[in-house]
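Please predict the structure of the following assembly.
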Amino acid sequence: MKERRIPAIKDGTVIDHIPSRDTFRIIRILNPQEFKYPINLALNLDSKKMDSKGVIKINSRFLTQSEVNKIAILAPNATVSIIKNYKVMEKIQVKLPEELVGVLNCTNPVCITSKEIVISKFKVLREEPLEVKCHYCERVYGKDEVEIKR
Amino acid sequence: MNFKGRDVISVRDFSKSDLIYILKIAKEMEKEKPKLLDGKILAALFFEPSTRTRLSFESAMFRLGGKVLGFSDEKVTSVKKGETVWDTIKMAERYSDVIVIRSPVEGSARLAAEAASIPVINGGDGANQHPTQMLLDLYTIQKIKKKIEGLKIGFLGDLKYGRTVHSLAIALSFWKVEMCFIAPDALQMPEHYIKELREKGIKCHKTSDVFEVSPKLDILYVTRIQQERFPDPLEYEKYKNAYRLDITLLDHIKKELKIMHPLPRVGEINAELDDTEHAIYFEQAANGVAVRKALLALVLGKEK
């Protein structure tokens, strides 16, 4: 029998196939301190699809589309499963939109978005490895440089 | 081709046919057209000092019969009181038919274009874009060489921070040209630009020795080491005198080589080269008027 590293959840969300190194970054952008119910996470798990993966199980909480988009920035191959009564009701393959609106901060200190109240807009130039470009100052950011709004 | 109502913000907004059309109209604008923009008002909003860009936009508007209002110093405006670019534009669009904005804040021209219902032209936004400079550079190359295709173009100086180099290289990549990037390693052309150019089939060569490549070049585009873009003043001191071209350059170039510079220069080209047939930087600056006349006429739908 397959060993279960994290207990199954009755209702909630399971995020699977996260690159291990990005598991903590993903947990942070989901603002876990505001969740009322337990969150379980594991990383450095063996995976057939990738070198080593992370899994996050969130009890009694379903993710919004904006949260799923944020996950796609760091883990474009992740799967998000909606669990109800221990059963997978829906499996969503995350998908990075062509444009990220209000999701990222531009960290260029002389970008207009750092000076005035402007909704940030980034164009996705490439998914893997991630490359996004600020619509305003046109600076290009890689995966380790992007700052995701919380 | 219809440019009426279009904004001119970034080199990325243009196709090759757009560029060819603008160059064609710029050539026509070398002729006097004193009534073309009669009754039109340009709002020239300069949030930082500028000599050539502001004067040539004003000259272009006056020569086409239009009028100019605006400011050339942020300190005399309500921006000093905390007014945003957005609000400044919302006001200016009601006083004018077309806006030129220059600001040290990157992306402010793009935001201005989103705020305004009238055309906005970027007169330079920090280290980001300066599309009218790119167009006048392209116009100068075509005017002097009668072609762009097949040229070998050297870029010398601060290629890391130099926005004019970045924009011009991207624009030139629509044609089959060869590019040489001449700079100390620390000021070399950013790798993502080289990669993009190579993906478009452009032959790129990097060196720190100008004489290694100068005998092959048709154009040498020289830029200033820009003190204001260096995060560390000590770094600037290290590189400010990296290149100082003088008369000895003439022993290492083709007879047809032309030297360009977006100006201002601070010693990278010795004045003794000014009177040689190679120097075209003042002509280049003068071409700014024809190109800006073309852009003003095009975005106002009055080029014919």
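Residues 109 and 115 of chain A are 8 Å apart (CA to CA). The radius of gyration of chain A is 16 Å.
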